[in-house]
Write a structure and sequence with these properties.
11 strands; globular
Length: 126
């Protein structure tokens, strides 16, 4: 079993920054992609960003490209999401997730991910 624990959420003013972390423990895949998704009230969960096992490949939703940066530290089994220039529309619960391997065609699909964290709330005030 795999456990994912997110941290770093909070309340921030528009234009501010936050850094989310997600630590994985348990029996993870030998190599795995780590991703971030978010879900706002009344909306479906949507893809935010993903990073490959080596970190050489990343993928971002258009809505966050240029503002968010995903990174990982495999020695710590941790993925990070640096969020800059935050907007009120970024307000959501942010979830991390992992999946085996890297597949550009399914990287944004929630059902392609095997394990999920409990989520951390990010609120951006205007």
């Amino acid at each position: 079993q795999v456990q994912l624990v997110e941290s770093g959420g909070g309340l921030v003013q528009a234009g501010g920054s936050l850094r989310l972390s997600c630590a994985a423990s348990g029996r993870t895949f030998i190599t795995y992609t780590m991703g971030w998704f978010r879900q706002a009230p009344g909306k479906e969960r949507e893809f935010v960003a993903a990073i490959s096992w080596t970190g050489s490949s990343t993928y971002y939703a258009d809505s966050v490209k240029g503002r968010f940066t995903i990174s990982r530290d495999n020695a710590k089994n941790t993925v990070y999401l640096q969020m800059n220039s935050l907007k009120p529309e970024d307000t959501a619960v942010y979830y991390c997730a992992i999946r085996p391997g890297w597949n550009t065609f399914t990287i944004t699909i929630t059902t392609a991910y095997s394990y999920w964290g409990q989520g951390t709330q990010v609120t951006v005030s205007s």
